[in-house]
Amino acid sequence: MAKESFIKGTLILAAAALIARVLGVVQRVPLEHLLGVSGGASFALASNVYLMLLTFATAGIPSTLGKMVSEKYALNRPEEAQRIYFAAIIFGLGMGILITALLYIFAPYYAEMSSVPEATLAIRALAPALILFPVIAMMRGYFQGRNQMAPGGISQIIEQILRVVTAVGLAYVFMTWGYSEEKMAAGASFGGVLGSIGAFLVMLYYARKLKKADREAGLARSGQQGAVTPLGQIYKDIFKLSIPIVITSLAVSIIYFIDSSIIVPILKGQIGEPLAKETLKILGMNAQSIAGIPPILAIALSTSIIPVISSAFARQEMDHVKKQITLALRIALLSGMPIVLILCTAAYSVNGLLFSSTNGSEIISLLTFCTIFQIIMMVSGSILFGMGRPKTPMFHVMIGIAVKLVGSFTLGYAFGIYGIVGSTMLCFAVTMVLNIRSLKQIVDFQILGLRWTGFLTSVIVLTGIGYLIEWAGNQLTHVMHARIAYFISSSLVGLVLIVLYPVLLIVFRVVTQQELSSYPRPLRKVFQPLMRLQRGQAVQSSDS
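Structure (tokenized):
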């Protein structure tokens, strides 16, 4: 029963995170149409600084708090669990107020430093959301510790729905009222505030419901028994466990923060300030939205294996650990690559279909290509966490961010926006290589081994096919409405590549019958019918 409950809870959290992430990506499509260059740049700047601060204030703490609360209830010490929860709520509220005040005060200075002074209002409109989110994170952590995953998952979904509806609705209303792009961006940013209120109300409802259930079950506070744990010790325990997770989780958000902060200052001397702001808008609204798609499915599939790795490593079953690490990283690579290929080769059509113009399609293609390194970086870091090495990926992320900073300024001044995005790829790649090297020091494994040749051949062939279909499809813009042509072109690229990808993996023996049973069921269903291609090759080879 406990195992079933754990699996169910994991699935609930994974599904909620998936839905929330998809909604977050979808949100920027209508906003890009509503907001102009100045409004889009302002919204992108506000969103990236907000997401970085939100990650800093909340990442790692829910899982750490959940672990501490779970341990106390397992030891039949609910009073201590409640005290830990109380301490966490106080910390979350204090952190939220402090970060909100700092962001509100320093918004004009940061906006001016980033050469987008009109973003001040959008940043300030989003700042109040940070009051509640640290508290919400603590509440989610407490419920995880009580083995109740649904409240956190439902609050995530409600938060994103309210955020999207409010952001798009206010931006549209402000546009019809004739407000400036600056105020439209602020209205869109304010969606985050209503999202936080909705999430908090959901958590409050479940907190009252749980409190009532505890009272009926006789678990209500009945007076402290034994020594009282000092608040200082509680905070020390929380920080000790959560800081490595916080720093590791900051990788993507701090990279996007760096980009939005330096693009206009670096590029305005090369292409002028108006074009530099348009580039910021393209990166923040278009490229980052599309680049957020590939990691969703790949990480959901591969991280489902990580608890198995943790359990096997705890029992020192190293052969099993080796197999599961290989499987997790292989699934991440194989499931992420087709989406990356489709979005890279069809970037022009996807950009024209979803957004107001095809400007910046090359930026979208390059940033999307970076995500294959991001996927392996994140999964390998999670595996190191599962094996009790939280500080290792933390240091690797710090090295990667240092590479990003140096690369952005050196390559940015030399190659413009492509140098800045290229430095992001370097950051992900360096961190990924360091993570994999550390894993190999613990247990020797191979992601693909001798199959890399077949895999890379498949990728090269599909890239050529994708670009050829994209070129042919875009010729349709001469005979029909451009958006219809973009839809046909991107759909054809996606359909052909998604069909040919598993076929080529089978033909080039990147995936074999012997290992197929270890794959998750969705992948087995894709590959199993195609395995006769390998059997056919074997028959031909024996006949010859």
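Residues 1-7, 539-544 have pLDDT under 50 and may be disordered. The longest helix spans residues 231-271.
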